[in-house]
Design a protein that fits this description.
Blueprint lengths: L1 E6 L2 E4 L4 E9 L7 E6 L6 E6 L5 E3 L7 E6 L4 E6 L8 E8 L6 E4 L3 E6 L1
Parallel strand pairs: 2-11
Antiparallel strand pairs: 1-3, 3-8, 4-5, 4-9, 5-6, 7-8, 9-10, 9-11
């Protein structure tokens, strides 16, 4: 089993930056891709960014150029650097990970709140 623990959320003014961290523990050797999702009140959960074990990244269009996902495989940790934050980025951000085959997000963290004030 894999456990994901997020940290780094908080309150920031528009235009500011935050860095989210997600640490994997347990059977972390079975992880292939890791990613970040977010869910704002009244909205569906959406993909923010993902990165596979080889370092290939994917971003939602609205996050390209502002957010950067990175990964430290030795530490089983994934990061999300968020710059130029906007009030519409306010959401609970969840860390997710696939199993070894990279099919489907099997593991989820508990989420961390990001609030961007205008």
């Amino acid at each position: 089993q894999v456990q994901l623990v997020e940290s780094g959320g908080g309150l920031v003014q528009a235009g500011g930056s935050l860095r989210l961290t997600c640490a994997a523990s347990g059977s972390s050797f079975s992880i292939n891709a890791m990613g970040w999702y977010r869910q704002a009140p009244g909205k569906q959960r959406e993909l923010v960014a993902a990165i596979n074990s080889g370092g290939i990244t994917d971003y939602a269009d609205s996050m390209k150029g502002r957010f950067t996902i990175s990964r430290d495989n030795a530490k089983n940790t994934v990061y999300l650097q968020m710059n130029s934050l906007k009030p519409e980025d306010t959401a609970v951000y969840y860390c997710a990970a696939t199993g070894a085959k990279g099919i489907g997000w099997e593991y989820w963290g508990q989420g961390t709140q990001v609030t961007v004030s205008s």
